[in-house]
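Sequence in, structure out.
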Amino acid sequence: MDYKFRELKFQDVFALSKIIKKTGIKDEMKSLFTDGKNNLDNTMNEVSQDQGLQLAIILFENIHRADKEICEFISSLSGIKTEDIMNMSLEETMNLFYAFGKMEGIGNFLKSASKLMQ
């Protein structure tokens, strides 16, 4: 299945912030966007889709800590009902998270969100 996501908006930072706090992945997320010197001032062009995929994997690994919030967040971006996401097969869920990690602008959005959490 080909998943489509809406454009990310500032209001999405609030949902992501709740997820990060509840899952305890703040340090992991921040480390995705540092150059080893705790510098988040890299140019926006240096943010890779790989970083978005890495975060999707981190979220998936910690989904048990904030399953409802993560599914609601993905639902709000994809238009897929939360309960449908929660009832997907493992393969479908992995494909959805993979598509989330590769969505346009996710790296820059996450980098900006990381700056707000310092």
